[in-house]
Each structure stands twice: as structure tokens, then as C-alpha cells.
Amino acid sequence: MRALFLTKALLVMLLLANTTAWGKTVTDLLGRQVTIPNNPSRLFLGESRLLHTLALLEPGNPAQRVVGWPGDMARYDAQSWEKYTTAFPTIAQIPRLGDGGPHTLNAEAILPLKPDLVILPRLAKTSVEDDALQQTLERAGIPVIYVDLRVELLKNTLPSVRLLGEVLNRTESATAFSAFYQQHMDTISQRLARYHGQKPTVMLHLHLGRRDTCCITAVGGNLGELLRFAGGDNIAADSIQRVYGELNPEKVLAANPDVYIATGMAGPEGKRFSALMLGPDVSEQQAQNSFTTLLQQEPILSHLNAVQQGRAWSMWHNFYLSPYHVVMVEMFAKALYPDLFADLQPQDTLKQLYQQFLPIEFSGTFWSHIAHER
Questions:
Q1: Which CATH number fits domain 196-370: 3.30.10.10, 3.40.50.1980, 1.10.287.3510, 3.40.720.10?
Q2: 35-44, 73-82, 95-104 — which is least confidently predicted?
Q3: Which residues in the chain belong to E strands, given as ranges?
Q4: What pTM did the predictor assign?
Q5: Where are the domains of the chain?
């Protein structure tokens, strides 16, 4: 009789525990209502560069709950990966499923890791295969939520941060960063609202030196929409309607923009996926020399008015997939309107972001300016 009583009591406790563990419903960035654990402790991330955002929210080791992810951060942002794995060596031991991003994932590889929540970037949901991944995981009892820190940045960055804060029970950290972000974005939008002069034309060139052809750019989302927010008249806006597209040399020469902005992310130790040096391990001199050399190798670019008149800038490409892009918006604004934003100090903003929100020390060079290229 006592054994039966204990068995029933155990069942009741398990039911109560299960109710407690799965007692929270959130709405993800696709508008899906998803029931998740109250305090998820085994996360699988569809993109390891989501670590940048987790670091804003989680105290100490930002990957403390992560049980698996792809190897995209180690591959495409090796400098940041080195910083985090040096500060928190256990991060390097987290299983990596392939070296790419979310499109390389399959449920069969994820399931043995026993995650209690899978977080996928919105970009992952673009094909039948992606739907199949979500459905297979959900059939196995693993909830899936989507965030968007890549595509519609103006619309979805803060909702994604708040969602992750809710999911991880880090709402206080999410609220604090959201206030920081909004304050800096408002400074730019409010000042531009009072400006009634002409918008400068601008060319945004992604990964200067990476490809033989000219020139990959962003327009209808991602860095393209941030450039528009900062008051830039993108020379690609009338010919490219998608997020990304390619400008041809004739278009570039005909437009002859007022401002030229290139992105890159190469470090001192390797340039496999980028040629332009910028990032946590790069010195100011290395960034300047790299930018100058690459422009000299591109006759079309080096003869643009923007370059000749000292309005050419390089900026760290990896701002594009984290809320840290608030700093890049400040850089855009300062490059486009140097007088209007003369008091703006993006370097101070980035240092404050590190000091106030991140568990690693600030280092490196994240932009460079060629005053004159004559």
C-alpha cells in the first residue's frame, strides 16, 4: 500500500514538474505562438553568431546553455570566436554541426544533443527543407522559435532582443539594452527629421576585394535599410529591389557617388572569406593600409569622387547580424553628414556597449577613413 502511495505521489510530482517546465508561451518573429520551457537550459542555435546577441543578455559565459550550433562563427568571424573561446574555453567544446549556417542543419544531427529549445534565424525559413527541419523537431517534442537579426533590422531587432530576454528570463538585460539602442537610434532619426538639405548619394560595397566582379551591395534590407535610415541615397536603390544584388561598373561610374562605404572582416591571421582588414584583432594602421591597398587595386573605385575627395570609409562587416549594428548606423550618419553629426562619437558608443553589456574586453578597429586618395 505504501509503495502504491509513493508511486502515485511520484506521478503527481512528475506531472507538476512537467507543467512547471513547459509553462510559458511566447510569440516568435514569425508570429507563431510556441510553448517553451519556463527556463530552457539546453539551447540549440541555428547560427552560432547569435552568440553576439546572447552576450548582451546572459551574465558570464553567454553560451552557458548552448548544447550545439553550426560552425559559422568560427569560420566567418574568427576574430570574435577567438575572443570568446579565450575568455570562456568551454565554448570551443560545444558540438558544431557543419561549418556553415542554418541551411546545412538536419534534425537527425540535432536530436541526439537533446535540446529543450531550438532558436533559428528568420533567414533559415526560406525553403521546404527548412519547414521540414522545424516540423521534424516539433514532432520530436522540441519547440522551435525564430528571431530576425539579419533581414528586417529596423523592424525586428528590438523585438528579437526582447523575445530572447523573455525566453531566457533575462528581461531586465533586454530592457536595458533596448533603451541603449533606442536612444542612439533616436538621436539620428530626430536630427535627420530637422534636416532639409540634399541627401548625399552613397555606394555600399560589401566585402571589398573578396570577389573579382564589381560590386555586391545591399538595398532592401540588412545594411541597405540601415543606410537608408541614416539618410543615405543608395545608388543601387533604383535597380535592385532585393536585400542583396550586384552593381555593374558602368552603373558605379555613372552614379559617381558622394560617399563610398566598403565592408570587410579579415583579421591579421587569415583572409579566406574577406580581404579588407577590420575587427577585434586589427590595429588602426592595419585597417588603414588594407583599405588603401585594396582601393588602389580597383581603378574604377579609386577614381570615384568619393575616394578622391576624402569620403571613403571601411566598416566591419559583421555588424550586419547583431544589434551592435547601432554603432554602424552612427558611422553611416557621420560618414554621410559629417557636419550634422560632428559631435557623434561611434567609438565611444561601441566602447560603452562593451563595458555596459558584454563579458569581454573591447579591442580592435572597426572602421577606417581615407581622407584623401591622391
A1: 3.40.50.1980
A2: 95-104
A3: 24-27, 33-36, 43-45, 66-68, 117-121, 144-147, 201-205, 216-218, 233-234, 244-246, 259-264, 312-316, 367-370
A4: 0.90
A5: 21-178, 196-370
